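Sequence design from tokenized structure. All designs in this work follow the same two-part layout: the structure record, then the generated sequence. An example of the structure record is given first.
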């Protein structure tokens, strides 16, 4: 088991935390009491929720080229985007065709004016240019 922990420390740590949470929940249920409600509501428009949603959406596009491009961009640049740019980026990836977005950002085709004016798209193009149109592997989660 120690060898596995050395090889996969993040997975083992995560599973240990998850197991402890499960034990705590089961203990409270077996006592007949209900788990405490923190009272905090998760709102879909909160910034941290939006950042997680963008991370997932940029990684699971369906086209490998778009997955590589967008997930690499998000892993490096998402923390630098402000709320307005987050909204623009989310709108861009949700409304655009994956191939169009890939060709626009790589410079293979000219994007429409509405996309050119998008600040998040400008940062995506700068990211692609900075990496010389090379992205070799999917970033870690």
């Amino acid at each position: 088991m120690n060898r596995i922990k050395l090889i996969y420390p993040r997975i083992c740590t995560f599973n240990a935390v998850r197991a402890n949470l499960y034990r705590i929940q089961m203990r409270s249920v077996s006592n007949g009491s209900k788990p405490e409600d923190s009272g905090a509501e998760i709102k879909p428009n909160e910034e941290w929720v939006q950042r997680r949603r963008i991370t997932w959406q940029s990684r699971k596009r369906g086209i490998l080229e778009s997955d590589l491009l967008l997930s690499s961009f998000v892993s490096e640049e998402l923390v630098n985007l402000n709320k307005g740019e987050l909204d623009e980026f989310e709108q861009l990836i949700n409304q655009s065709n994956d191939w169009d977005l890939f060709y626009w950002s790589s410079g293979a085709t000219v994007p429409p004016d509405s996309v050119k004016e998008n600040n998040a798209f400008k940062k995506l193009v700068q990211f692609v240019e900075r990496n010389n149109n090379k992205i070799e592997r999917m970033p870690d989660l």
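Residues 9-30 form the longest helix (22 residues). We note this feature because it recurs in several other targets discussed in the main text.
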